[in-house]
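Need a sequence for this fold. Nothing fancy.
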């Protein structure tokens, strides 16, 4: 399954972050640190939690919100650009920011 190898790649790229794990959900995986849900791996793409302070960075890069199907869009999760996923340091920074967005919301 494509998602499993991509999920494994994302987890490997995220290994500098402590305690990140993937749990099955939405036909893909939810990314958690401890009990904080901050990301989604779905159909070979990675999405991170956003808020009003971070969404502009995603939109500037022409990224779109998570859309698991044609009838549903989760505007609080946006696709992470490939160049960020491939850069372990940047990915860690973006993940920390996504975790912060989720914690502020809670």
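Here you go.
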């Amino acid at each position: 399954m494509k998602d499993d190898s991509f999920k494994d790649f994302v987890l490997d790229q995220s290994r500098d972050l402590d305690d990140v794990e993937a749990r099955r959900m939405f036909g893909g995986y939810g990314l958690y640190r401890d009990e904080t849900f901050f990301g989604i791996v779905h159909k070979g793409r990675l999405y991170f939690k956003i808020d009003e302070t971070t969404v502009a960075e995603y939109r500037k890069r022409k990224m779109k919100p998570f859309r698991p199907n044609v009838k549903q869009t989760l505007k609080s999760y946006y696709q992470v650009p490939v160049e960020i996923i491939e850069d372990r340091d940047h990915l860690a920074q973006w993940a920390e920011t996504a975790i912060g967005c989720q914690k502020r919301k809670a």
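For context: Residues 88-105 form the longest helix (18 residues).
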